[in-house]
Amino acid sequence: MNVLLIEDEPDMVALLEATLTPAGFEVHAERSGDAVELLLERYDPQVVIVDVMLFGSRVDGFEVVRRIRSVSQHADTLVVVLTALQGEAYVRQAHEAGADLYLSKPFSPLELLEQLERAELLTD
């Protein structure tokens, strides 16, 4: 199962790859969401995990989520916002953009796996 990870911090990419790969996911990491439509076409992910603050990117994670939702083939793609931004306003903004899940950094990798399991994307 393909995961598109849009994250600009190498340590976070390494943590997520170490968490998701043993669980059966193939992780494709990108530092920017500027061309998310092309990335969706290239990787055809079932899950997209996106940070909100993407340094060096022309768009933030909320815009990336909106762009994902504008691609009809990815209407059912699970979109997870994983960010250091905390607070109800950010959670609301993520859900209004079309995110399915919102996790705040620091986060538990086990919590992410549990959320994917609840979404029926992870099997024993």
Automatic annotation (TrEMBL):
GO terms for biological process: phosphorelay signal transduction system. The modification 4-aspartylphosphate is found at D51. Coiled coil: none annotated. This is Response regulator. InterPro entries: Bact_response_regulator, CheY-like_superfamily, Sig_transdc_resp-reg_receiver. PANTHER family: RESPONSE REGULATORY DOMAIN-CONTAINING PROTEIN, STRESS RESPONSE REGULATOR PROTEIN 1. It comes from the Bacteria. Keywords: Phosphoprotein. Signal peptide: none annotated. CDD domains: REC_OmpR. Pfam families: Response_reg. Residues 2-120 form the Response regulatory domain. It comes from Oceanithermus profundus.
